[in-house]
Amino acid sequence: MAKHVLAPQQVRVSGANNWMKLYDQDQLVGHASHWSVEWSEHGPGSTLFFWSSATDNAPRLLTDNLNMAAWLLDELESADSPFTTKASELVLATFTVHNETPRRFAVTAAFDGDHQVDVIWDDLSAPVWGNTELESNETHSHSSCYVPATTAQMIVDGVSSAGMALPEDWFGTPSSSAFLAQSEVWLRH
User: Fold this and answer.
1) How does DSSP classify residue 69?
2) Domain of life of the organism in this record (predicted)?
3) Tell me: the pLDDT tens digits for 67-99?
4) What is the pLDDT at residue 142?
5) What is the pLDDT of residues 16-60, one digit of tens each?
6) Rounded CA gap, 55 and 138, in Å?
C-alpha cells in the first residue's frame, strides 16, 4: 500500500502556468505566461503576462484578480523576468478558455473595452512530469505536468505576433519553448 507523506514546505500557489516563448531564428520576439490559479492566499484567478511585436515589445499584464496578480509578480516572477513591473500597471480583464480538442489549448483575454489577446498552444504532445531542484540562492521550487506544444501563437487585437515555438529539451525529454504547465504547485522552502 502506498504511504502518503506531507511535506514541511509551505504551499504558495497551485494551478497552471502555461508558457510560450516565440522566436524569429534564435531571437526571442514574444513571451506569454498565463497563470490560472486555483489556490493562493490571495484567492483564485487568471493572469496573463505578455509582450510581443504586436505590443511594440512592451510588457502587458492582465488579470481578473488584482491582489493575486500583484502577489504573483512579487512572490514568483524572478528578477530577470520581463514581467517584473509595477503592480499599478495591471489591467482588469475577463478570461475565456477554449479547450476544443485534447491537442489544442487557447485563452482569450478581453480588456479595456474592445481589446483582446489570444494565446494558442497547438499540436500538444504527450505530457511529462517534472520538478525543480533548488539552487543555493533560491527559495521556491515547483512541480508540474508539462504538455509541450509544437506550435504556438499570440494574437493581439487581431494582429498575429511574429515568431514561432522552437524545440527545447526539458528534463532530458524533447519539448518546446511553448508548453502547458498543468497541476503546478509552488513551494516556499
Assistant:
1) H
2) Bacteria
3) 999 888 888 765 455 555 555 588 999 999 998
4) 85
5) 999 999 999 999 999 999 999 999 999 999 999 999 988 888 888
6) 32
- Cell for 65? 484578480
Compute CA distances 183 → 12, 87, 137, whole Å: 13, 26, 25
Instruction: State in Å, rounded, how far the first CA of the chain is from the last one.
Output: 29
Dihedral (C-alpha) 173, 27, 123, 179: value to the nearest 10 degrees?
60
- What is the DSSP-derived secondary structure letter of residue 81? -
The C-alpha cell at 133 is: 531542484
Q: What pTM was computed for the model? A: 0.89
Distance CA 83, CA 21 (A): 13
- Give residue 157's region: left, alpha or beta (phi > 0; psi -120 to 50): left
CA neighbor of 96 nearest in space, from 36, 56, 152, 142: 36
For 174, the enclosing helix (H) or strand (E) is strand 173-176
Alpha-carbon torsion angle 94, 98, 104, 105, nearest 10: 30
